[in-house]
Amino acid sequence: MKKILLLSLLLAFAGEAFAQKKTKKTKQIQPLVLDDSTAAVLVAKAEAFIRSGLKQDSMKKYTASMAEYTKAIGVKRDHARAYYFRGTSKYNQGKYKDCIEDFDLAMQLRENYAEAYLGRTRAKIKLNDYEGAKTDLETALKININYPEAYYERGLMKEKGKDVQGTMEDFGEAIRLKANFTEAIIRRGNLYQGLGKLNEAILDYNKAIAVDPAKPNPDAYIGRADTKFKKGDFKGAVSDYNLADTLITGDKADFYVHRAAAKLNVNDCKGAIEDCDKAISLKSSDPNVFNVRGTAKGELKDYRGGIEDLTRSISMKPDFTAAFVNRAKVKYSSGDKEGACSDLFNAERMGNDLADKLIEQFCKKKIEQ
Question: Domains of the chain by range and CATH?
Answer without folding.
Answer: 250-369 (1.25.40.10)
